[in-house]
Amino acid sequence: xxxxxxxxxxxxxxxxxxxxxxxxxxxxxxxxxxxxxxxxxxxxxxxxxxxxxxxxxxxxxxxxxxxxxxxxxxxxxxxxxxxxxxxxxxxxxxxxxxxxxxxxxxxxxxxxxxxxxxxxxxxxxxxxxxxxxxxxxxxxxx
Length: 142
Description:
Layout: E1 3-4, H1 7-15, E2 21-26, E3 32-37, E4 40-42, E5 45-51, H2 55-63, E6 65-72, E7 78-89, H3 92-107, H4 109-119, E8 124-129, E9 133-138
Antiparallel strand pairs: 1-9, 2-3, 2-6, 4-5, 5-8, 6-7, 7-8, 7-9
Helix pairs in contact: 3-4
C-alpha cells in the first residue's frame, strides 16, 4: 500500500544508493528543461554541480529556482519530488570539493579525486536547492 514519506524518509531516500535525480528548470522563453544530475545532501540542501554555460546553469542563474525528482525504478516503486530556491557558488575550490564528494558517491571512492580535479575549474558551479516543498511516496504498487 502506498505510503507518504516523512521529511526524514525523503532525505534517506535521496541519500540512499546511487539514484540519478532529474532537475527541472525553465528556459528564458518559458519552455521546460529537464536534465539528469548526480546529487548529494548537505543537511536539507540538495547539492549538485553544473557548467555555467549549460542550459540548466543558465536557467538557474536567471531564475534561482528549480524542481528535482528522484525515483526508484523497481517495484513496488517510490519517488520524491522537491522544489525550491537554488543558490549558486562559482568558487573553483568549492566545485572541486563537491565534485569529489558527488563523484565518490556515484563512481566510488577510488575515482572521487578524478571528478574533483576535472570539475574544480572556473565556470563549474556548485548549486544548492533548499527545498521549500517536498513530497514523497513509497511502495506505490504494493
